[in-house]
Amino acid sequence: MDTLTKLKDKLNIDENEFVEIEEVISHIEETLTSYGISFDEQLELGFYSHVVSFIRRLKENEKVMDVSDNSILEQIDKKAVDIAEVLVKPIFKEYNSSYNYSEVILIAVYIQTAMFEAKGGEGDE
After folding, report:
1. Which long-range contacts (CB under 8 A, 24 or more apart) does 91-100 make?
2. Which of these, 53, 52, 65, 43, lies nearest to 23 by C-alpha position?
3. Planar angle of CA 49, 54, 59, nearest 5 degrees
4. Per residue in 66-80, pLDDT tens?
5. pLDDT at 123
6. Closest by Cα among 69, 71, 83, 70 to 112
7. What's residue 122's pLDDT?
8. What is the distance, to the nearest Å, from the Cα of residue 56 to the centroid of all Cα atoms in its chain?
9. In angstroms, rounded to a whole number, what is the distance separating the alpha carbons of residues 19 and 1?
10. Residue 117: which of 42, 40, 45 has the closest Cα?
11. Amino acid 66: pLDDT
12. In whole angstroms, what is the distance from residue 122 CA to residue 37 CA?
């Protein structure tokens, strides 16, 4: 959680919000670890920033722009999307928010990047 602590001031996270986000990220980390996925420091920083924004959007009932463009979706590995869905479905439920596939895709991008880096930057093609 060192990364989250680093983001606390930069993202104006108060103590109550910090505890809330820390709990969500802890669950996310456990799930990612169970899939053998880890982030390097830079990717983790971006991912945590995204999770903070994601939670704030859910709390404010805001939506991200639609990323269901086929050119984007074709580049996202199904495994990354499946893992992202496992991560975010409980979060949508916790915040009584409707499921948003665009949020899933945005999370999947981070997961796919970590998977790519774990392979030494080698694609499947």
Report:
1. 91/24, 91/54, 91/55, 91/58, 92/58, 94/24, 95/55, 95/58, 95/59, 97/58, 97/61, 100/63, 100/64
2. 52
3. 130
4. 776 666 778 899 999
5. 53
6. 83
7. 57
8. 13
9. 11
10. 40
11. 74
12. 16
pLDDT at 65 over 90: no
Q: What gap in Å lies between CA 88 and CA 28, rounded to an integer?
A: 9
Helices (H), 1-125: 2-10, 15-34, 41-60, 70-73, 78-94, 101-118
Locate 59 and state its tokens.
């709390």
pLDDT tens across 90-114, in order?
Answer: 999 999 998 899 999 999 999 999 9
Tokens of 26: 């802890």
The three-state secondary structure class of 74 is coil
Task: Please give the single-letter amino acid code of residue 104.
Answer: V
